[in-house]
Amino acid sequence: MFLPWQSFGRIPKYLERYRQDRAAAEAKWEAERAEERERWERMRLSDQERGEILSGLRANWSEAQHQYQRLSLLTDTLPKKLRREQLEAQLDVLEKYVALIERHPVIVVADDPYKNY
Q1: What is the Cα–Cα distance from 29 to 45, expressed in whole angstroms?
Q2: Of 39, 62, 59, whose CA–CA distance to 51 is shortest?
């Protein structure tokens, strides 16, 4: 059998190197994606932790509500007025946090809240 040159019909070396480089880049990308998924799973709050936080917030709200109800109806002095306003603000914040956690079933805890993930 006559061949025009010795490497006739074989894959060129530059294509083999390209295929190897591409396979290595793809493996690296897959490893990075797996690491990213694992990091997200570590950052995700479990249902048990979420429930504990929610029950703690509700307990704090209940205590603040109890203190608020024990205040006198007449706020004739500045300290009474300031205490009432402080408790109302605290109740508002606790209600917002409870609503936020109840609304979102998946919560991710980030080390740096300003970093885009």
Answers
A1: 26
A2: 59
Q: What is the pLDDT of residues 64-76, one digit of tens each?
A: 999 999 998 888 8
Q: Residue 95's closest CA among 64, 61, 69, 65? A: 61
d(CA 52, CA 50): 5
Proportion of the chain in helix, strand, coil states, percent, rounded to 5: 70, 0, 30
Partners of 44 in the β-ladder? 108
pTM of the full structure: 0.60
**What are the extents of the domains in the chain?**
12-43, 45-112
Eight-state DSSP code of residue 5? S
Query: 78-103 vs 47-70: helix axis angle to the nearest 10?
Result: 160
